Amino acid sequence: MRLEAITWDRLTDALAERVGTTASADGGPWLRIAVDGAPAARPADIAGRLAEALRLRGRPVHVVAADGFLRPASLRLEYGKEDPDAYYDTWFDRQALWREVFTPLDPGGTGRVLPDLWDPRTDRATRSPYAELPPGGVLLLHGPLLFGHWFPFDLSVHLKLSSAALARRTPQDERWTLPAFARYEDEVRPEEAADVVVKADDPDRPAWNGHG
Questions:
Q1: By its UniProt entry, which InterPro entries does this protein fall under (predicted)?
Q2: Which CATH architecture has domain 4-203?
């Protein structure tokens, strides 16, 4: 894959322009955008930048973090606190993401999206109110391991880190997750699944594949 250097500001503007020319694959009035990446790649940052750029262009945006849809600790930690296969397979409540985030944005849906479901710090439901995304609005879902679940993304961005950069930038107490990301690369091949790939080994010098 050929990559070219770009600044984060230019990348944000380019992605916002791409969103402006993207149509919903199912003909519905909402767009669903993924910003996929390991926590070390900081997908929340680019999702926040893109959300602001879209709002400045007059688009309603709702940002959802995959980490807001973790399963209860009794399920996440069934096989211990540092099991990479459990992190890969069972930590994230993907059924809840379908039910509370994607289904409301189907054609004829309500547009009422739940921003989060579970607080891992308290291990309790967040009880957050639903947010209504008006027609023409954009959902931005960010977080790790987003591909391979048939989520109906209209545009997908993958923040790529080499294995060395991922290990270097992952905090020591989270390095037990590294085998999960190696498995993701092997089984899902996120570079091939994404419309846009951004190499972020050097956080100050990203590179991307253009418009995919």
A1: P-loop_NTPase
A2: 3-Layer(aba) Sandwich (3.40)
